[in-house]
Amino acid sequence: MITLYVGRFQPFHNGHFHDVKKALSFSGSLIIAIGSSQENNTKLNPFSFAERKEMIERAIGKRARIIAIPDVNNDEIWLSNLKSMAGHFDALYTGNERVKRIFESNGLTVKDVEILEGISSTKIRNKMHNGEEWKSMVPDDVAKYLSEIGAAERIAGFSEE
């Protein structure tokens, strides 16, 4: 079975890590699609595709194929692009309700992720912005990488919106 896991991973956190380990446990192969891949250096999407790919690879090694999925303002085109980039897959694994709805409305199999209480990329970015502790919410290797690239300082530089 080939599973596709879609997310923005801004940043990749312990919830994502848990999901990837679970997907790998029931799937022979995993494709991770990094959404909003064209976005970076904004408050909502502070990390580039390359940085997010590096986070994931530091956490899980080379156990998944990682692809970039840019945003388009048309769900049918987005899904077509995703299918083209990913190739064959049997099931989708996502916590994003919009992505889930797009797949289900097209008759595709969706597996729900388990949401870990208190962990979200938004919460982590907010903690970084406010100078609060965030490293316990991401895998150790991701925390090291985020420190190396000055992630908290970058995010702290974004104004409140």
What does this structure look like?
Strand 4, helix 4 (97-105) and strand 5 (110-112) form a beta-alpha-beta unit. The protein has a single domain (2-156), classed as HUPs (Rossmann fold), CATH 3.40.50.620. It is an alpha/beta fold and 161 residues long. It is globular. The protein has helices at 14-26, 49-60, 75-86, 97-105, 121-129, 140-148, 151-156, and strands at residues 2-7, 29-35, 65-69, 91-94, 110-112.
CATH superfamily: HUPs
For the largest beta-sheet, the strand count, sense and barrel status come to:
5 strands, parallel
| Number of DSSP helical runs | 7
**Overall spatial form:** globular
Poorly predicted regions are none
The percent range for strand residues is: 15-25%
Q: Provide the CATH top-level class.
A: Alpha Beta
Amino-to-carboxy terminus distance: 42 Å
Number of strands: 5
Spatial strand arrangement across the major sheet? 3-2-1-4-5
Overall residue-averaged pLDDT value: 93
Q: Which bin fits the share of residues in helices? A: 40-55%
